C-alpha cells in the first residue's frame, strides 16, 4: 500500500512539473530556427516566490558553463579587456539578451568570476520585474565594498545621494558591475546615472535582459556591444542532458537514445527546459525505466497540443 502511495505521489510531482514547463517548451519549439527576442512581452508576476525550476539551473551551473565554452569566449571578446586600443579605456557596456531559460545569468556569472580579479571594484546586482530603485543602488554599493557599506546606514539616503555616493566611490577605480535581469529601458536610464562616462580606466558594465529593446537602450554608443543568446545546438543539448542523467555524454544506453532525442526536440535547446526534464527522469542516482521516459515524452506532447500559449520561463 505504501509503495502505491509513493508511486502516486511521484506521478503527481511529475505531472505538476510537466504542466509548469509545457507552455515554455511550446514557445521554444516555435522559435527554434527563427530566434528573435524583440517581440517578447514581459508579464508581471503577482508573487515574489522563487520559481522552483530555477533550482535545476543553479544546481547544474557548472555543467552548463562547460557546455557554453565558446559562448564565454565570445562574451570575453566583446568586453575587449586585452585590447590596447586607447578607446577601450572608456567605460563600456555589453548587454546579453535572450528569452527566458537560456542561462544568461549563468553565462555572465561565469565570465564575471573569471575576470573580476582584474578590477579594483566589482558587483553583481539582480534587478527583476518589480525593482526598488533605492535598493538597486544600495546593492551596488554593498557589492562594490561590502565591509564599508554594510556598516553604513544607507537607508537614510535618497536616490540622488545614493547616485552621488556611487559616482564618488568609483571615480578613480576600474570597476566591473553586472546589472542582471532588466525588464525596462527607462530603469536602465536611471541606473546608468550612477556611472560616469569620464572614468577612463577600462571599466565594464554588463547587463542581461529578455527584451531586445531594453538591450538596445543599454548600448546607445557604437563603443557598446549586444550579445544575443540563442538555444543550444543539438549536440550541446545532448551533452547537457546526458551529463545530467548519466554523468557522461557517452553513457546513454542504446535503448534510451531514441526517446532521448525525441525529448530533446521538445526542449528546443533551452538549458532550463533540458535540466528540468532531465531531473524528472532520475530518482537520486537511479535512472527511471524506459516506459516512464515514454510516459514523460507523451505527456509533454499532450500539453503542447492542448495549450500553445506562452508564459515566460
Automatic annotation (TrEMBL):
Say which domain of life the source belongs to.
Eukaryota
InterPro entries per the record? Apaf_helical (IPR042197), NB-ARC (IPR002182), P-loop_NTPase (IPR027417)
List, alphabetically, the Gene3D superfamilies matched: Helical domain of apoptotic protease-activating factors (1.10.8.430), P-loop containing nucleotide triphosphate hydrolases (3.40.50.300)
Q: Where are the transmembrane segments?
A: none
List residues of the NB-ARC domain: 88-249
Q: Which GO terms describe its molecular function?
A: ADP binding
SUPFAM superfamilies cross-referenced by the UniProt entry: P-loop containing nucleoside triphosphate hydrolases
Q: What Pfam family is a match for this entry?
A: NB-ARC
PANTHER family for the chain = AAA+ ATPASE DOMAIN-CONTAINING PROTEIN, TRANSLOCASE OF INNER MITOCHONDRIAL MEMBRANE 13 HOMOLOG
Q: What is the protein name given in its UniProt record? A: NB-ARC domain-containing protein
- Organism per entry: Triticum turgidum subsp. durum
Amino acid at each position: 500500500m505504501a509503495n502505491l502511495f509513493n508511486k502516486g505521489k511521484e506521478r503527481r510531482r511529475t505531472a505538476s512539473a510537466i504542466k509548469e514547463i509545457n507552455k515554455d517548451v511550446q514557445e521554444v519549439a516555435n522559435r527554434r530556427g527563427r530566434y528573435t527576442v524583440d517581440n517578447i512581452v514581459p508579464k508581471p508576476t503577482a508573487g515574489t516566490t522563487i520559481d522552483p525550476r530555477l533550482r535545476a539551473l543553479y544546481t547544474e551551473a557548472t555543467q552548463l558553463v562547460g557546455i557554453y565554452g565558446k559562448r564565454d569566449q565570445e562574451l570575453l571578446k566583446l568586453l575587449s579587456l586585452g585590447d590596447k586600443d586607447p578607446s577601450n579605456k572608456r567605460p563600456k557596456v555589453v548587454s546579453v539578451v535572450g528569452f527566458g531559460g537560456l542561462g544568461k545569468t549563468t553565462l555572465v556569472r561565469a565570465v564575471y568570476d573569471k575576470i573580476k580579479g582584474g578590477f579594483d571594484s566589482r558587483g553583481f546586482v539582480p534587478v527583476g520585474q518589480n525593482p526598488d530603485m533605492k535598493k538597486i543602488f544600495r546593492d551596488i554599493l554593498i557589492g562594490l565594498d561590502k565591509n564599508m557599506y554594510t556598516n553604513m546606514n544607507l537607508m537614510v539616503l535618497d536616490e540622488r545621494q545614493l547616485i552621488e555616493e556611487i559616482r564618488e566611490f568609483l571615480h578613480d577605480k576600474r570597476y566591473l558591475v553586472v546589472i542582471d535581469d532588466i525588464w525596462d529601458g527607462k530603469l536602465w536610464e536611471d541606473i546608468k546615472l550612477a556611472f560616469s562616462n569620464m572614468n577612463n580606466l577600462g571599466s565594464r558594465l554588463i547587463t542581461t535582459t529578455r527584451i531586445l529593446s531594453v538591450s538596445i537602450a543599454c548600448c546607445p554608443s557604437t563603443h557598446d556591444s549586444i550579445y544575443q543568446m540563442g538555444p543550444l545546438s543539438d549536440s550541446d543539448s545532448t551533452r547537457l542532458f546526458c551529463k545530467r542523467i548519466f554523468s557522461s555524454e557517452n553513457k546513454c544506453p542504446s535503448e534510451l537514445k531514441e526517446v532521448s532525442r525525441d525529448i530533446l526536440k521538445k526542449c528546443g535547446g533551452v538549458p532550463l527546459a533540458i535540466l528540468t526534464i532531465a531531473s524528472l527522469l532520475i530518482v537520486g542516482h537511479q535512472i527511471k525505466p524506459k516506459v516512464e521516459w515514454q510516459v514523460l515524452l507523451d505527456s509533454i506532447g499532450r500539453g503542447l497540443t492542448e495549450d500553445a500559449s506562452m508564459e515566460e520561463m
